[in-house]
Design brief:
The chain is α+β, with helices and mostly antiparallel strands. The chain is built from 6 helices and 8 strands. Strands 1-2-3-4-5-6-8-7 form an 8-stranded mixed β-sheet, with helices on both faces.
């Protein structure tokens, strides 16, 4: 495969939200790690990877992996920037090109919650998945107890498909996940 240099993704929120989504650069590693560190306790409740991200170098590896994902045409990870400050992350898990499907994952620092940032970011990534990548299906999986995360696909009109029992492992327990989806024909109508 010939490596290609793609332009970074940069999506602006609609006015009046002073925010943007943009793919990460390696120079963002320190700021990303600082955001994780500041929000470690609240993130740990729902994200099993938090305890493996223990230094800025771990955030740099995530950014490098994200760049490879983007270069390989498997989607991307983007920072959610609020007033030019890192607020969270949203992105596609690698695109399933056989089935034209992708899953969106997201998280946000505590001080940025309640501003509609993730809802609008998910809305942008859904539209991008259907218009740019020409996918058929977008899904979101949320832990059954993560009510704030569950509210986002419900707010955006996703269909709740069911529960995956003990589908995500944390160090000392498993959690059930609710699967939500939206199809291109439902979103674009």
């Amino acid at each position: 495969m010939i490596e290609q240099k793609l332009s970074p993704i940069h999506l602006l929120y609609p006015n009046p939200i002073p925010a943007e989504l943009r793919t990460f650069e390696e120079s963002d590693a320190e700021a990303l790690f600082a955001l994780i560190e500041k929000n470690r306790n609240s993130l740990r409740e729902w994200l099993p990877w938090v305890d493996q991200n223990i230094a800025a170098g771990d955030s740099k590896k995530f950014i490098q992996h994200s760049a490879s994902q983007f270069q390989n045409g498997d989607g991307f990870q983007a920072g959610i920037w609020y007033n030019h400050e890192p607020a969270g992350v949203i992105g596609y898990h690698p695109i399933d090109w056989l089935n034209l499907s992708v899953m969106i994952g997201y998280w946000l620092g505590e001080e940025f919650r309640g501003k509609g940032l993730v809802t609008e970011a998910v809305r942008m990534l859904i539209s991008y998945a259907f218009a740019h990548y020409q996918l058929h299906r977008v899904e979101i999986k949320c832990a059954t107890g993560n009510h704030k995360s569950i509210a986002i696909p419900r707010r955006l009109g996703f269909t709740e498909e069911g529960i995956l029992r003990e589908a995500e492992r944390f160090s000392d327990h498993y959690v059930d996940l609710i699967v939500f989806s939206v199809l291109e024909k439902e979103w674009m109508k």
